[in-house]
Amino acid sequence: MTDSARLVLNLSCEDKPGIVAGIASTLANSGCNILDSAQFGDTETGLFFMRVEFMAPEGVSREDVSAALASVAKRFQMDWAVYDATALLPILVMVSKFDHCLLDLIYRQRMGALPVRIAAVVSNHTDAQPIAEMNRIPFHHVPVTRDTKPEAEAKLLEIFEASGAELVVLARYMQVLSEDLSTTLSGRVINIHHSFLPAFKGAKPYHQAHARGVKLIGATGHYVTSDLDEGPIIEQDAERVSHAHAADELVAIGRDIEARVLARAVKAHAERRVFLNGVKTVVFRP
Asked: Which of 42, 229, 237, 256 is catalytic?
């Protein structure tokens, strides 16, 4: 590496004195310049989380910095990694028939507003195939029925590994992932859910909400776990509505919220700003 490298260090460990000092001094001794640093000590779990973005000088690679940090990481028994802050995260997007979240991700990627590269689109229908092909993204049709679900999920995992993707994004994919697949891809699957309607499960949640006269609708971006729609939360948003909104208007507002919340969640993950903390997350905002 001949040019300066923009890198990100993520770490978590038991909260003890000296962690920040140890990281800062090690980076300084390596000639690195810290651009941004965020840390959080969770008094409930006793864990410490830290994200440091920095510039390594010309001739100092990510591997060199990692080697320099190894000693302090071992001393504090850290779970840690150093990433290239300029690299685009390869993602696999899964979608069913609703395409608003997929289209939004593609647009943000194209505009450079989302640091990802959509490596493939997978769907249990063919509705999104023209969108993927128009944007020169490999499309895979993987039908799913109750009887073929194990074979379909094996195919999905095969596509995920072959594509080189590091994250699966469920962009309104209307199939529940099995416990086995959720466990295999733990921390690597983000889903969007109409979270501010917790009492309205099943079909047409916005229509159910309209019938009950709700005053607030929203969405949640979260990691997928075996507990349906109860994984660690990354991002949320909501909007006020009133009796004057028809059910179809709630659907339109909901789709807009879903798209932007999912994009924010994917962006936070891609920028290495999200840390799993048990059933919760720590998210360092820019």
From this structure: 229
